[in-house]
Amino acid sequence: MRVLGINALYHDPAAALVVDGITVAAAEEERFSRRKHGKRPVPFSAWELPEQAARWCLEHAGLRPADIDVVAYSYDPALARPAEDMGLDDPWDSLRQAYAQHAPQFLATALPGLDPQKVRFVGHHMAHAASGAFAAEAAETSSVLVLDGRGECASHLAARRVGDHLEPLRAQLLPDSLGLVYEELTEHLGFLRSSDEFKVMALASHGRPRMADEIRRYVHPTGDGGFRAHGVPWAELCPPRGAEEPWTADHADLAASAQFVLEETLLDLVRWLHGQTHDSVLTLAGGVALNCVANARIAREGPFSRVWIQPAAGDAGTALGGALLLSAEAGEQPSPMPGAALGREWSDAEIAGRLKTAAVPFERPPDIAVAVAEVLAANGVVAWFQGRSEYGPRALGHRSLLAHPGHAGNLERLNDIKGREQFRPVAPMVLTERSAEIFDGPLPSPYMLFVHDVAPKWRDRIPAVVHVDGTARIQTVDRRHEPLVARMLEEFERRTGLPVVVNTSLNTAGRPMVDDPRDALECFGSTPIDLLAIGPFAVRRSEMFSTGANGWSVTAAGGGGGR
Predict the structure, then answer these.
(1) The Carbamoyltransferase domain covers which part of the protein (predicted)?
(2) φ, ψ (nearest 5 deg) of residue 453
(3) Which residues pair with 287 in a beta bridge?
(4) Structure pTM?
(5) For residue 398, which of 409, 407, 406, 390 has the smallest C-alpha distance?
(6) Cα–Cα distance for residue pair 12/195, rounded to 1 Å
(7) How would you classify the pairing of strands 281-285 and 227-229?
(8) Which residues does the chain have with pLDDT short of 50?
């Protein structure tokens, strides 16, 4: 059975393809359109579909739209209620619902040959839940918790997976929404709502939760698996911050307070769910599950022995979840997702062709991992473009920006390169077998979705990746799945004695992660990155911007080209 999953209505439009229960491809529209998050989550954009992502998924599998057996659209307008009845200030939501109702016809227009009768509406939170429960490894019997801004009429779902069946247990109706409360705070602090919530989480570590008692009046668990979360008078707690204004201690304290109350509430929900199921495995999905600080507390203090989080936990993940859910309902055993590298890739010949077309000097070193380790050891910054692009918001060793963790100034340096706020941390990448000696927290952590305490003896050795509170959001690397990244880490340690490399996403502020070679060249050419490692090839800044007789320096090693 061939199932195409589509997320489109709110934000992060994406497509995924599941064939006979196996995840074949998944990609976000932003990587093709180069618009961050694909679009803004407003009713007037609800008609926009992940057309390019869907076409690529089909092409990758050698399929045509007519070959698809069923399409999972991760929103069910039949479950929705008028916004005013739910206590939401969203006067144009009726337009969004009209677009959702006509999604089958829109999809048939976007994908000629697709029968609109094959489109099935899947409840938004059930799609989220399936993206966790069915995609996780060894989770045939497991609990699942979904929390986000909103779905059709709820903001939360607690459920349980038993085999191929997903059973809803509890939902929290709107207007109560932990996700919407965090979005409101994001906007109050001068950041972009439904986009920059991770900045609030980072800012929180610079503050004290001294306003937590006041926020608890409006945000708290109700003891029955639900919660109250709306109506926080943010302006009474702290003046709003303008987008271009510096943040103050009061802003950091407000962020810390809201973060602390969020964590408390999540822990209560997790404990309630465990009391219902007594499972050992918990899977998380929904935008709130991208809060890695809260995730770490759930793993550390919660009753579940294992916590797994969908790497595309935001709305993009519902494309995959919807497809997995319909596949399971058709009687096919859903297979765990093979990893987050589910997007586009290019052959060596295709990359070389792109480099020659761009008329940039490049070389093919004997081992690109060794070449990168040498540049990193000399304190250079490397753009790392390898294999299939990642599904979800984290760079996980396929579209990454790498640097030396032993120089504290590299944090400011990378934030300058990316054009982002200096309070933002960068992350460490480490081999799985080396991680426990340096980091204390849930291990392994392949998707960078938990924070870990950095061992005191290591904090001065890798200062660039240690956040102000002594933690780091790590990515562990399994050499069986990522042999090239593992070799690069080993070569870097051989030269520096450090088994850790800085890893942050290969993009600049306000732009999606790079996806194809053109994106990589544009990012490299516009920022002071020292080396672009793209496939087996190396493009060096010292060569690209030096001039020879014909205006370019040509590097002969490995047959590079220039003009």
Answers:
(1) 2-324
(2) -75, 135
(3) none
(4) 0.95
(5) 390
(6) 10
(7) unpaired
(8) 548-563
